[in-house]
C-alpha cells in the first residue's frame, strides 16, 4: 500500500475538546458521534462536539482505534476495564438529542 501525505491546516482558534461520555447513533448512510462532558456529581452533561461519518469511515475508525489502543498498551501497559459499574452507571438515558 502506498503512503500518502496530507497537509492539515489547524486553525489557531480551534480549542481542544475533552469528552468523558459518548453517544453513538447510526442510520444506513452515516454514524453520528455525540461527544459529551458529563459534569461529575450531577445528572447533567454538555455536548462538546457532534461528528458524522460514513459507515466506511466508521469501519476504518474502528481499525485505527484498535491499533492505537494496542500500541498504547505495548508502550504503557494494559488498560484495565472499569470494575463493574454501579447499576446507575450501566443504563444511562441521554435526553436532549436524538
UniProtKB/TrEMBL annotation:
Polar residues biased stretches: 85-98
Region (Disordered): 76-98
InterPro entries: DUF3467
UniProt-recorded name of the protein: DUF3467 domain-containing protein
Amino acid at each position: 500500500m502506498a503512503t500518502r501525505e496530507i497537509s492539515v491546516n489547524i486553525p489557531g482558534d480551534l480549542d481542544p475538546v475533552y469528552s468523558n461520555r459518548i453517544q453513538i447513533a447510526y442510520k444506513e448512510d452515516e454514524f453520528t458521534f455525540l461527544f459529551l462532558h458529563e459534569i461529575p456529581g450531577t445528572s447533567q452533561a454538555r455536548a462538546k462536539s457532534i461528528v458524522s461519518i460514513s459507515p466506511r469511515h466508521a469501519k476504518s475508525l474502528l481499525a485505527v482505534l484498535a491499533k492505537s489502543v494496542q500500541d498504547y498498551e505495548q508502550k504503557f501497559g494494559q488498560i484495565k476495564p472499569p470494575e463493574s459499574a454501579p447499576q446507575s452507571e450501566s443504563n444511562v438515558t441521554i435526553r436532549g438529542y436524538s
